[in-house]
Known about the structure:
Elements: E1 5-12, E2 15-27, E3 31-36, E4 41-45, E5 68-72, E6 77-83, E7 88-94, E8 100-113, E9 116-129, E10 134-137, H1 139-145, H2 154-173
Amino acid sequence: MTGRIxxxxxxxxxxxxxxxxxxxxxxxxxxxxxxxxxxxxMWRTALPRRAHLRDIPPExxxxxxxxxxxxxxxxxxALIHQPAGARHAVFWLFGRRQRFRGWYVNLEHRTHHRExxxxxxxxxxxTVAADRTWRWKDERSFAEKTGHPAYWSAQEATAIRAEGxxxxxxxxxxxxxxxxxxxxxxxxxxWTRPPRGPAPxxxxx
Length: 205
């Protein structure tokens, strides 16, 4: 149902980094579209100041995961396209006054549990500007994590990069999802920011 609240849970190396309520825009057999509003109340990992979960080796983390603390989504609003069975999601990024700023391709693996969308982040991503020029993001940390049992093997890393290369070719050719579709998207005016809701039921995959 359009407007239904789902939970977008981002896991890094098997540990929960953030859990953000999003609204369902559209769902078909081929894809689902989600709306993530800037400032949405959320849960995030409670870490020492300026620390980031991706920089903490999994063997140095608590086995049952870090505690979560309340926060708000600190970045801009985004329309998220999740193709069924694909190892990526595409974010349409919007700034002030709903101005389109470009795309972000998150390489990932998703599983669904009722209203929860569990995303295992693959570290390597692409940023695509509004003029469709693109660049890799986090290549060094992707390489450093390759081979670690909590992340991906060398063979899996090859497949992850190949998925990114495929998306880059689509950007270069101006093919969907980089063909101008949804760049003028605006959420229904009656949608409010979803409530934070209860703390996530699990912090470790």
